[in-house]
Hints:
Membrane topology: Multi-pass membrane protein
GO molecular function, one term: transmembrane transporter activity
Strand content: under 5%
Helix content: over 70%
Keywords: Membrane, Transmembrane, Transmembrane helix
Largest sheet: none
Oligomer: single chain
Protein name: Adenylate cyclase
Number of helices: 4
GO cellular component, one term: membrane
Amino acid sequence: xxxxxxxxxxxxxxxxxxxxxxxxxxxxxxxxxxxxxxxxxxxxxxxxxxxxxxxxxxxxxxxxxxxxxx
Length: 70
């Protein structure tokens, strides 16, 4: 479950670098930076899938709706 978080962190760092070098880098560099890390690490939806799978695994059927709702 840490891989999507790392990917989003690297995307944020890459976009900060693109902002710093705004006039030197082409627009394609920002597009690649924003797309490559989530594509390789799964993005936020992989994180949600992992969290929901973990909750479904550790809770009983009676508690599951409450825990996923929280």
